[in-house]
Amino acid sequence: MAININEEKRLITLQTKNTEYQMKIDQYGILLHTYYGARIYGSDMSAAISYSERGFSGNLTIDREEIRAYSLDVLPQEYTCSSGGDYRISALSVRDAAGGTSCTLRAVSFQTEKGKYSLDGLPYVYDENNEAETLLIMMKDPYSGLEAELQYGVFEEKDIITRAVRIINRGGQTVQLEKAASLCLDWQYGDFDWLTFYGCHAQERNLQRMPVHHGVQSVGSTRGNSSHHYNPFSILCEKNTDENNGLCYAFSFVYSGEFLMEAEKDQASQTRLVLGIHPANFRWNLKPGMSFQTPEVILSCSSEGFGKLSRNMHRIIRNNVCRGEWKYKQRPVLINNWEATYFSFDAEKLISIAEESAKLGIEMLVMDDGWFGKREDDYSGLGDWYPNEKKLGCTLKKLGEEINARGLKFGIWFEPEGISEDSDLYRAHPDWAVQVPGRPPVLSRNQLVLDISRSDVQDYIIGRISDILSDAPISYVKWDMNRSICEKYSAALEPAQQGEFAHRFMLGLYHILEELTSSFPHVLFEGCSGGGGRFDAGMLYYTPQIWCSDNTDAINRLNIQYGTSFGYPVSTMGAHVSAVPNHQTGRVTPFATRGAVAMSGTFGYELDITKLTDQEKEQIRTQIDRFHKYYDLIQSGDYYRITGPQDPCAVWSFVSADRSQALITVVSRQITANSAPKHFNVPGLDAQKLYNAVFVLPEAEEKPLHVIEKVSGAALENGGLTIPTMQWWEYQAWQILITEA
Questions:
Q1: Is 616 a catalytic residue?
Q2: Annotated catalytic residue: which of 141, 156, 355, 536?
Q3: Buried b / exposed e across 98-133, counting CB within 10 Å, b at 16+?
Q4: If DSSP codes are grouped into helix, strand and coil, which group holds residue 205?
Q5: How confident is the model at residue 725 (pLDDT cuts 50, 70, 90)?
Q6: CA 82, CA 662: separation in Å to the nearest integer?
Q7: Residue 86 catalytic?
Q8: 656 partner at 20 to 30 Å CA-CA among 210, 259, 325, 497?
Q9: Given 616, 632, 730, 740, which residue is catalytic?
Q10: pLDDT, tens digit, for every residue of 445-483?
Q11: How far is CA 8 from the centre of its chain?
Q12: How far is residue 463 CA from its own chain's centroid?
């Protein structure tokens, strides 16, 4: 059993294949968190809790008697309130009808269920094979009637635990939730580092490792979405942890909106981590008898370093978050016209790209921004989802049929959440735009945001997109969102409800996506928000891949894809080969290197294929053949980061589940004269099996440059491989094919 309850000791233990998570209900009804880490085989870890009087820490009072050696301010707890004498960061803050903020939660009951709980209207980790177990713990404030149902899902074989909370108002008056986090987790002991992933548009998910210091540290977003700037995924780890060794914990928020992730080291050097919806723009009115469901957090723990932790996260997202027909189905190699034409295209130009693409093995053409309304630039037309037949020179249906006739599938770009002031939609419904009455709106990319917290706006978007997908032969949708939301206001909400807008916006987005993906299951939806501005587990529930970044420079992409890989599988990363000089950086890199980097993703092209040389076109044929050959290994194999972002060479590998083969990619970031050979170890293979290693250039697999025969997996992991520097140059890529001898 994954969930074990010792009712005599009031001890609750969640067990996975390699870890245990333990809680205990004490004599006062406080739900204490006692342990999370490697397996301890049911031992009661509550004996490690220290009870002592702490100056200026509030004490528990029973029947007006103060218990001096018992303070919530220093006890490890499972879910905390912003009162009761605990002055640390908290998970729940409630304001009652009288304006008071006092709330104390006591555990009153618990139950277990076979299978995994589900969430209504929110993305979550699902359990279609009934492999998980659920634990529900009911917490109650004895004075107000407020309840908090703590929800735990345990995937024993996957080393995954999920957490969420349902807040219920059993009292007689409306209360206001000012903070309702999904996770609170305490460590009594340990000196930790915190890995977070920061960035900006076109430079997302850079790894930052910092010690957890005394005080509060946080990352988050108040931008209306999860953002380019801080990702809702992080890792807490011991000081000595690296890729292959050390204790570490992963936290992934299954939510695409505003979030706050906080870490605090307190007066007793204990560490607390809280994760949930950002409270800055959150005020939820909870009426009597109503409930509020928080989004879900995915947790995993590894005592074998970051690599094992990442592979745990990759499997759960690939198998239990991504859904639908395209979850495992081989995705087409596509070409997108954005960097080829920007807004300047018509059907004739797109058909010429399709004709050339078909000759080279490309399987889909995606028409990007500029096909609808009065959309010749980013100043107008957004929201008018009617094909501009005058610009195209034909109907959308005819264009799709012409693309199909060339042997390619047809895809299309939308930005359904955006609206231009110069649009028929805005002129008809200015109140549908997110803006504060009486003030000039704040524009970004010359556009506003549609208020999709409103059901009428949701219906408009669903209706227009459904009509287009039903009329034309469309196989793919790129779902973009090109600005943050700053002035959070809805004309459809009462003044007292405006604090609900940001979360209602996300619920609206999820409703739209659920309706469309259910109605058009054969369409492949790709998420995008200026590239990687909404790259999170929440979006992956609806779109099994996300455009990883608007930055297509192969060398910049090394770091972007490296950081992304800590929490998300390669099968979710949209990656394309683009033209040089690169449109974002001006850098010139070899065509083969651009292909090798993009191949560690969903793979495609972002250039004007009609302008390529014959040699480049031949390389496209080679790259596509190679991607198809190793598709299963790349998309579902175990991923290993072999070097870090500061290394002059980027090295990573894919290893098949049965450990019979591996594909290693090496990209030179920089070369110095007379430098030492590049040496690295190869993890993940069977130690006792013998393998052959074939060194090739990506553009010429049929011409091996170096072969090593009959070397053991143990030798590859402990002795490694070497690439002599005399045989390579800056920005060159190598690939090494490893197969059983």
A1: yes
A2: 536
A3: eeeeebbbebeebebeeebbebeebbbbbbeeebbb
A4: strand
A5: low
A6: 51
A7: no
A8: 325
A9: 616
A10: 999 999 999 999 999 999 999 999 999 999 999 999 999
A11: 40
A12: 28
